[in-house]
Specification:
The complex is a heterodimer of chains A (272) and B (447).
Chain A: H1 2-27, H2 30-58, H3 66-88, H4 94-109, H5 127-158, H6 165-205, H7 214-234, H8 240-264
Helix pairs in contact in A: 1-2, 1-4, 2-3, 3-4, 3-5, 5-6, 5-8, 6-7, 6-8, 7-8
Chain B: H1 2-6, H2 9-28, H3 46-51, H4 60-89, H5 97-101, E1 106-111, H6 115-128, E2 132-138, E3 141-148, H7 155-176, E4 178-185, E5 189-192, E6 197-208, E7 214-225, E8 228-236, E9 241-243, E10 246-268, E11 275-280, E12 286-287, E13 293-301, E14 304-306, E15 312-314, E16 323-330, E17 333-341, E18 358-377, H8 381-400, E19 404-413, E20 416-424, H9 429-446
Antiparallel strand pairs in B: 1-20, 2-3, 3-19, 4-18, 5-6, 6-7, 7-8, 9-10, 10-11, 10-18, 12-13, 13-16, 14-15, 16-17, 19-20
Classes of the chains: A mainly alpha (272), B alpha+beta (447).
Amino acid sequence: MSETLFFQAALVFYVLSAGAYLVFQLNRRPSFSSAGWTAGLAGLALHTAALVLRTLASGHAPFTNMYESLSFLAWSCLLAYLVMDRLFRLPRAGFFLLLIVLAFMLLANSPLMPKDIKPLMPALQSHWLWLHVSITLLGEAFFAVAFVTSIMYLFASSRRSKAPAEKAAAAAEKLDRVSYRSIAAGFPLFTLGGLVLGMVWAHKAWGAYWSWDPKEVWSLITWFVYALYLHTRLVMGWKGRRSAFIAILGFLAALFTYFGVNYLLSGLHSYA
Amino acid sequence: MIVRFLGSLKPAIFILIGLLILSVLGTLLPRSAPGETAAPGSRPSVLLAVLKPGDIYRSPLFLGLLFLFSLNITVCTLTRLGPKIRRATRPSLEADADALLASPDSAKLRFASGLREAAAAVGRTLRRRGFRVRESGASGRLVLLGRKRTAGLFGPDVVHLGLLVVVAGGIASGLAGFRTTIALEEGRTETVPRAGINLRLDKFEVETYADGSVKDWKSRLTVLENGRPIGHETVEVNHPLSHKGFLIYQSGWAPVRERPRLGLSVSGYGGDGFRRDITARPGEPAPLGERGLSLTVVRFLPDFVMNERREALSRSDEPLNPAAMVEITKDGETVHRGWTFGRYPDYGGTHSRGDADYGVAFVSLDYDLLSILEAARDPGASFIWAGCGLVMAGLFLAFYWPPREIRVLIETASGRTVLTAAASGRKSREALSAEFKSLAGEWKGMK
């Protein structure tokens, strides 16, 4: 099982990356954040190999059960973080983001999630599976980055730390801006993957583009929350704490759409 | 006043929150099956009538909020559109040096060259970077306005228009959409209501994987118009058939409980090794080869039990304990008659009448399959796709097409040419600052 091997190796690198970012969190030496970054990137490369091997072995997209989709979500979150870090320099978010990645990886790795490759049921045999799921999860990954930076913002703005007030305010302001930027990246992706492509596929497979299925409704709820974030921010000029709360709420809604609907509510999306 | 209120953001936020709460409720409360109504005689409370807990998304409250939502979007977009279009097509070409310098991205430079040459050179640098340049002014004072990606201004409006088209599509689907289920047995023809066609199921196939799970269901259909075949089509999951605005989907399959097929194995006890494996349907005699033998399943019970009066009955329609009363005749005379059981294939033959020369083992049980198709005509769907396209285009414009504006004032002051410039743009400020700095650098070089 070479796929498992690559997956485990990626997990090890993610742990190393999280460790390096944790040390950076404590001593603020840039060499540790770059070590964290490099380990994260190496883990991502191994993880990519695991996903490719899984696809080759199963002959279908690597997100048809919870194990596969959690693994892909972890991969997407790290990718989204590495992109946002290159654009905006966010080494302090590294540790917290890696915690989310590790949570998804460990959950995927746990015995709760059956890992064996199952043949694909008829409803999932479609090219739309690739587009619908991958784009949605990528959008949610950017929401995860916004979630982390929003929580960091709340801490940064409430705790007037040892750092000079001006510097702390500038750092907080940057976190607020990065939250917005992540949502600005995630929102169109989530709209396209989760709602538009979901409707296209539903139209082809179920004969109805919208069935008020719980997963559909929760995607719409998530979309509404982020729409609220964007409108209060861009039109009413909300920033800072209030925006951060909405961004956190949005990611919780996205998580519920992803997990909660599967385990707590029943509906058409009973497979993933 | 009311119009202004309807189009403003505060009610929009309350409407959004209302829709959110109802949507959450809708996923938590159990949904009633379509067509299910309150028991006759019961009087529903006003709250239940407005909220319809079993069907929140069709409740007057939800639809009312959706209506207000559309109204809000419409009013908001229309009231903002006029000034926006004016700003996009006929921008103000005014400039005030102090106001320009108040911007975080501004510059003030002096040139040795004349006013006109400086303006021409600045215009060239702007155009080279894709800015559309407008110029106005009189002698001694020129204003250049360079803009690009102005379409980005309209991103939110395009998204809103798209949402309205989606809502319109939803209404069209709700009012004029038509959907029906067609269950077809192999060889049968059914009419697709309102579509003016008939469908004949030529073959229904269920493909399975090695582990027995279903891989695919396929209905091979002949489409008939006025009784004449006009085409052969295969419908499977994810691959519907499209015909004149109708889409026909493979929705499922079901066994026809009235049409069982019994796999039976008949052995002769005469010592000559007689053995025949046959498939039989209840009531239809099946020949057993050349000896003039024929087998008939006289009775079939899918869930065999015997009651206290020792009568054989079926407890249910499910094949939990299938049993068949089998009769074998030779040249019209009964030579064997007895029960045989699907779960106990070795039992066959003991309850025999006659010479008990034959044993019948009940080896397998299949049913004819019913292909369940859904035919749907949804005039709203094309609106939905158009609306989705607009929403995506609008989101692209709003997030990835940030408008930029650079205003340049060139004046002659005490014999020298003075340039004051500032950049403005609400989105992606960092990139805008970088571009402005690089432009200002080019202008410095022109001195």
